[in-house]
Amino acid sequence: MEVVNAARDARLAALGFDVDRQRLAREYKRKRLAMSVVRIVVYVVISAWLLTGFTFTVAGWASAFGGGPLQYALYATLLYFLYWVPVIPLGILGGFVLERKYGVSVQGLRSWLADAAKSLAIGIGFSLVAVEVVYLLLAATPLWWLYAWLLGMGLGVVLAWLGPVVIAPLFYRFELIADEALASRLRALAERAGTKVVGVFRMVASAKTTRAFGGLAGIGSTRRIILSDTLLNRYTPEEVETVIAHELAHHAHRDTLRLTVAGALAGLVGLLAVDRVLLAAVPTLRLSGPADIAGLPLVALTIATVSTAIGPVLNGLSRRWEAAADVFALRMTGNYSAFASTMVKIHDQNLGVADPHPFVEFLFHDHPSGRRRVETALRWRS
User: Domain spanning 173-251: which superfamily?
Assistant: First the structure.
């Protein structure tokens, strides 16, 4: 193993990566993965416990004030907290302690708790809406899965449009960047790529994180270029340009649409699986019917299983499209050195593992590894 790690470090060092940062990145990712596994085990255990009978107890509590939509809402709220409370220690350890220990977060506890409370409120809100819609449709029609799928796609479009102007500002402050020369350069780049943007915005991220971000957000009248101050403070205009050129490639290649379609098809598969599983579970679990709210843990477990199974397929498609976007950015900017240095710096800065094990990359990574991306730039040069 030491020989393998030494060879990996030598390969990364030859490409310009900081070996010490990459060792730290691998250590950090291992701990994050271990906590994710523990979280999954906890969720599975809770689901199994509920489905052995306790789900009917929770449904009984939720029916104290009536059935139908009110029962759906109360049950969903109780279930949300049944899943959430046991993993609070993991949330604090992974989201606050570990992030600060490895230097990717500089956020104070009070600020972190405020963001966690906002995320909790948003999560509960969306969960309640989803449960109400799905179970009202389950009670109304056998084609509930089709209507739920169509409504879900519509909601996705609305959220993509509202995201940068409503949701993101709940967590970060945004302002037009002061560097007009850079803004003009990026607007001109967007015009060359055939993409309209409403402006170039600076995201004040440094009060919470040391990670660097850059990209496009929103659709139509809300589409904008967003650059974190942690990116602007450490990267040259040429490097920033390569980041945005890559993001513009996704619009030029219609990757956003393709990924949306792929995700929509995966969602449809998930809903159809839920339909089949619920119908089969009615006699097995002694549900009163598919619309019995006591079956909700089975719905959540089915969706999680399908998502886990389909995840590597979607990641594979994403890596392919991301690689094509890298080539587009290289051709558009003609600056292989800026692209390569950006990939090196951003992986080291964000503690991104630049050379993951191929199996780990296959399962979890939606972008090509940093090493592959730098090697692409070097091949493009030659």
Answer: Metalloproteases ("zincins"), catalytic domain (3.30.2010.10)
